Amino acid sequence: MSGHDHGEDGVSRRKVLECMTWAGTGVLWTISGGVPRSLGIIDSAEAATAAAPGMTFLQISDSHVGFDKPANPNALGTLEEAVNKINAMPVKPSFMIHTGDITHLSKASEFDNADRIISQSKLDVHYVPGEHDFLDEEVKFYRERYGRGTKGQGWYSFDAGGVHFVGLVNVVDLKGGGLGNLGAEQLAWLEDDLRGKSKSTPVVLFAHIPLWTVYPEWGWGTEDGGRALEYVKGFGSVTVLNGHIHQVMQKVEGNVTFHTARSTAFPQPAPGTAASPGPMKVEDAKLRSMLGVASINFKQNEQRLAIIDTPLQG
Amino acid sequence: MKTLNRRDFGVAVAAAILLPVTTARADDTNMEVHIDNFVFQPPELKIKVGTTITWTNRDDIPHTVVSAGKFRSKTLDTDDKFTFTFTNAGDYKYFCSLHPHMTGMIKVE
Q1: The total number of structural domains that make up chain A
Q2: Domain spans of chain B, in order of start
Q3: Which of B39, B66, B101 sits opposite A177 (nearest CB)?
Q4: Which of A40, A144, A297, A305 could connect to A44 by a Cys-Cys bridge, CB 3.0–4.6 Å?
Q5: pTM of the entire predicted model
Q6: Which residues does UniProt assign to the signal peptide (chain B) (predicted)?
Q7: CATH number of the domain encompassing residue A158
Q8: Tally of CB atoms within 10 A around A314
Q9: CATH superfamily of domain region B29-108
Q10: ipTM surpasses 0.90
């Protein structure tokens, strides 16, 4: 009688299905035959999804709710703009992922505000934490809201539309002088999670800090990200979706596509182009062209997921 | 010669109140580290036992000051400060737990 309620698999599978409705300001990802493609930010995403059925999900990232500094005095407002943009999409995405830094300072009110806006998308949202989501004294606000049913510090996996999704946490227990960190426990879990999966199953790994080394001088990379990538080596289609760096960056290496999404809050400079990776103040008229979402479309029998990054404006 | 305006008066009072601190500063028992552009400035300090250091975050992004097993600040938002008094000699490597590429060193002798 309780198989339905308590079988962990049953619950998480159902959750997954429910989760297929997520929205935010993000990247629209399309999974076609195994490789996600970013359809760019929203307008081009609309075009691509209209032309190409299959499963489409969204990525939003780095909403930094609570941020009110000159680079964007109203980060909650731009998050809402992003959600409005998602709601206006002609094809409703199946779900959404949020790749962390939901809040700026992990205040309960910031989490509440973020949820109030993001829930207006009426999409299920799969979260992974950013370093800004673990700042409360007891490190409990994120976990209470989004940690249920996850392992360790909040990692988990689910299947949707024939694709295996893995949400990873690389913002905990960071070492002085180092980069993002997955840790031995999570890596062992990941190896186990992928064991026995057919190599033709498309895999999407998502985490806050890039799993690949973007720019170590600014900490933009994950110390042991290479270990995670070894575990997915044999798979025909692997897509790695990250946030943290508040700009779109993409790289393809063999079967692996790496992609980072824009923030909905404020832009950060391109690697090495400023004194620090801190919030970049741009003219007001330009801000919304540097914020956005991503959509990803997946079609059976196509190698790559189509990823479209759509700015809030322009 | 001139009467003190209100602001100068305030400064004079503040100076009087802060006098012990100011004197201490002359003895180098209070020192400061600023966080600017994701860098601890100065990145290394040599101090005497008993010195108090105050870190101030001047970035638009929160940071922390952490020396494993020795001290750990709360999250410092813009303009927040963290103070620690070094009572034992030794080398204290520290970093920001949010941006671990940010490192610093306090050498206490």
Answers
A1: 1
A2: 29-108
A3: B101
A4: A40
A5: 0.82
A6: 1-26
A7: 3.60.21.10
A8: 12
A9: Cupredoxins -  blue copper proteins (2.60.40.420)
A10: no
